[in-house]
Write a structure and sequence with these properties.
By secondary structure, the protein is mainly β. The protein contains one helix and eleven strands; from the N terminus they run βαββββββββββ.
């Protein structure tokens, strides 16, 4: 039996930008860069496969994995991506609410679906998200983490016998100083 914990998070949108190239920026400037020892592009299948220690970079951040398979449409826009092996994400992003966020997470694999607007990390998932201006952080640990960007819900699941762990941290309030 799997346990499930739902956490509303505006920060969830940040992870999408790592893989999708950032929906908030204009299409003319959006760029997705694969850096890998081997990259194969199959135009007929609309498939990009990068292997051997992949670094996928957008203007918002970077995803690293042993292998990334991406499906594009006719205009080379990313539709889905599957990252496997030592997956890490590091992102510094400003959301539509103008709040700057930093997201770092890792897992065994990650899947992105553009139509559903979801990112799923599976296997030994751990990470944190920081609302930079307020220094609020959320640390997470579990078997599976799903970011539902359409509904701003973050779900963390565990395998039976292995609990999820979520830690919310707020900065200490600054002491008020008496007027002189």
């Amino acid at each position: 039996m799997m346990k499930r914990m739902l956490i509303p998070m505006a920060m969830a949108a940040a992870m999408l930008a790592v893989i999708a190239g950032g929906a908030a920026e204009p299409a003319a400037t959006r760029q997705i860069k694969f850096h890998a020892p081997k990259t194969v592009i199959d135009h007929q299948k609309k498939l990009v496969v990068a292997t051997g220690g992949v670094e996928l970079t957008t203007t918002e951040g970077t995803l690293w994995a042993d292998k990334v398979e991406a499906i594009t449409d006719d205009e080379n826009r990313l539709q889905t991506a599957e990252a496997t092996g030592n997956v890490r994400v590091d992102l510094d992003w400003t959301g539509s609410d103008k709040k700057r966020r930093r997201v770092k997470a890792q897992g065994d694999r990650a899947t992105y679906d553009a139509a559903a607007r979801t990112v799923v990390l599976i296997g030994h998932v751990k990470g944190n998200a920081v609302e930079v201006d307020k220094q609020r952080t959320i640390d997470l640990k579990g078997h599976k983490a799903t970011l539902d960007l359409q509904h701003s819900i973050y779900a963390v699941e565990a395998i039976e016998g292995t609990p999820t762990e979520i830690i919310f941290t707020e900065p200490e309030p600054k002491p008020e100083t008496a007027p002189k």
